[in-house]
Design a protein that fits this description.
alpha+beta; Hypothetical upf0131 protein ytfp; Gamma-glutamyl cyclotransferase, AIG2-like
Length: about 200
């Protein structure tokens, strides 16, 4: 599916000197809040929110912009734990040479943006951040979420949660890599249990 940008080009004029010094593609939400103005939310999803059916529970009127968005210089990890999801949850971690594939959404309704913040536990569990993602090699600024207090180790996700993510990944090679990573986490847990059993 080709990327359709009907929102228009976003211009950034403040704190240009600070921007040039930033090495990360992520920025604090507070530095880009648009002076309190309400704008449509262009949202990069890399976890369960990639899944159209699951995301519709939170943002039913959101419009799909691209199924093949990329966050470069980061990798997908599961270094958070959720009781509701029954295991590990997705996060992004800086890693040179890696790419996180995801979905780019357009969330127009402010009530749905608020619902998405509640779903992510923002700003206490996940925090909302700006991210420069790429669609067909074109840079696009969007919002995404990252864990506030990630764990030091990864936690295997539940089969249901993993299924939501894998089913929504458009790139076959990336899907296989994520599947292999999840399987390695599951295998590590099984081996640990066997070792603890003596």
């Amino acid at each position: 599916m080709r990327f359709v940008d009907r929102i228009g080009r976003i211009e950034y004029t403040s704190l240009k000197g600070i921007e040039r010094k930033r090495k990360s593609t992520l920025e604090d939400e507070e530095t880009r809040n648009g002076g309190g103005k309400k704008h449509p939310m262009r949202y990069f999803a890399y976890g369960s929110c990639m899944n159209r059916n699951d995301f519709a529970r939170t943002c039913p009127t959101a419009r799909l912009l691209s199924e093949r968005a990329e966050l470069r210089g980061y990798r997908l990890v599961f270094n958070g734990r959720s009781m509701a999801r029954g295991g590990g949850v997705a996060n992004i971690q800086r890693a040179q040479g890696h790419v996180v594939h995801g979905v780019l959404w357009d969330v127009q309704d402010p009530r749905e943006v608020a619902a998405l913040n509640r779903r992510e536990g923002a700003p206490y569990v996940y925090r909302r951040r700006r991210a420069r993602v790429y669609v067909e090699d074109r840079p696009v600024w969007a919002w995404t979420y990252e864990l506030v207090n990630p764990l030091c180790v990864e936690v295997p996700p539940s089969g249901e949660y993993a299924g939501l993510i894998l089913a929504a990944i458009a790139d076959p090679g990336y899907r296989q890599n994520v599947k292999a990573h999840i399987c390695s986490l599951w295998k590590g847990t099984r081996n640990k249990r066997k070792g603890d059993g003596g």
